[in-house]
Amino acid sequence: PKEAFRTDAKCESGRIVLAGWSTENGVENLKLARWFSLEIFPEQLPMLFKEDGASQWCSTAAELLASYAASFAFGHLEKGGGSKNLRMAITGGTDNKSNQALQEKNMSTKWPLLAVHMQVSSQLLANGVRMRLRWRPREENVPADAITNGDHSLFDVKNRVEFSLDDLPLSFFRELCASRNEFMSLRETQVDVKPAEGKQSKRQKLASKTAW
């Protein structure tokens, strides 16, 4: 299927850059393409950063977030009446193999990838859209990579889609992160708590063991 957009994400200390461009006007003349670049800082989404500001550890989640941002920026998540039936499927190009695999099995237990995936899935479902991500070798994703590095020369500044992180639907993601933080805090209070055990006889210990 034809790709609707191509994206990339750059994770570095103290900053994540999401970027992408739309292929609706073809892939030959990038000056005609709509594009976006969005910076994320620790105070905005602290769950994507370590205490020292490192973000490289969550590159897969950032790449998926870039695809989500592209879906929003290029109008694929425009609010409608909502539907339980899939009305449209969009395909996006990414140079992260893990996200293609994630889309195929539709699940992950890694954090914060799990939360990002659930946010993306819930928003797509609410808009009757399905997104498929297809891996592209890095050498075939040069334009998107250039944007994340601050090089916008391949594109026309007039076609830049301007939006902020607050515009991107992330309420479910933030709710999941808040729940996890609460759980982790409660777990920390129980680390050194050991259940009191009464002294057992040898017969009681043998009886408590499984038959196998």
Unreliable parts = 81-86
In what order do the strands lie side by side in the largest sheet?
3-2-1-4-5
Helix content: 25-40%
Structural class: alpha/beta
What order do the helices and strands come in, and which of them pair?
Blueprint: E1 5-12, E2 15-22, E3 35-40, H1 59-73, E4 88-94, H2 97-105, H3 113-126, E5 129-135, H4 142-148, H5 171-189, H6 202-208
Parallel strand pairs: 1-4, 4-5
Antiparallel strand pairs: 1-2, 2-3
Helix pairs in contact: 1-3, 3-5
Task: Give an overview in words.
The protein has 212 residues and is α/β, with parallel strands linked by helices. It is built from six helices and five strands, in the order E-E-E-H-E-H-H-E-H-H-H. Helix content is 33%, strand content 17%. Strand 1 and strand 2 form a beta hairpin.
Descriptive terms for the model:
5-stranded mixed sheet; single chain; elongated; about 35% helix; alpha/beta; about 210 residues
